[in-house]
Design goal:
Elements lengths: L2 H10 L11 E2 L8 E2 L7 H8 L7 E11 L10 E5 L2 E5 L2 H11 L7 E9 L11 E6 L1
Parallel strand pairs: 1-6
Antiparallel strand pairs: 2-7, 3-4, 3-6, 4-5, 6-7
């Protein structure tokens, strides 16, 4: 044990309470205002989720799970966004910091919310759009 868990154990003689691994489901207003970043690196995963690309693209509403990544070497506050178990991007640094403040001290670390996947059209070799992901929470 290291860090706070070790201190907690020494002070109180037991481990800190474990966080519930199940995500807390959040309901929101359907505005899908929070943009996921880094999704350009996960276009293959987004295509797996959406199926074959379509001429007019995608506008899929589905569930996403937000997972804090304490060991992320690029950002210790990183929050990964997954859909159907596949990584589709991350919260922006400011959104991740706000998210972590919001769950600080909570009995859960993961949150499930609605996500909207947009774009991803295919109108030929010179007109192929990227997918984007927006969250509703």
């Amino acid at each position: 044990m290291t860090g706070l868990a070790s201190l907690y154990s020494r002070w109180l003689g037991k481990r800190p309470p474990a966080r519930d691994p199940r995500p807390r489901v959040l309901e929101a207003d359907g505005s899908f205002r929070i943009a996921v970043v880094g999704e350009a690196s996960y276009q293959d995963n987004l295509e797996r989720i959406c199926g074959a690309r379509k001429k007019d693209g995608e506008n899929l509403v589905t569930d996403a799970v937000l997972i804090p990544e304490d060991d992320n070497p690029a950002d210790r506050n990183a929050v990964r966004v997954t859909i159907r178990g596949l990584t589709v991007g991350y919260l922006s640094r400011p959104d991740a910091a706000d998210y972590r403040k919001g769950i600080q001290g909570a009995s859960f670390a993961r949150v499930q919310c609605k996500a909207q996947i947009r774009g991803g059209w295919d109108r030929g070799p010179s007109d192929r759009g990227h997918y984007g992901v927006w969250l509703d929470f």
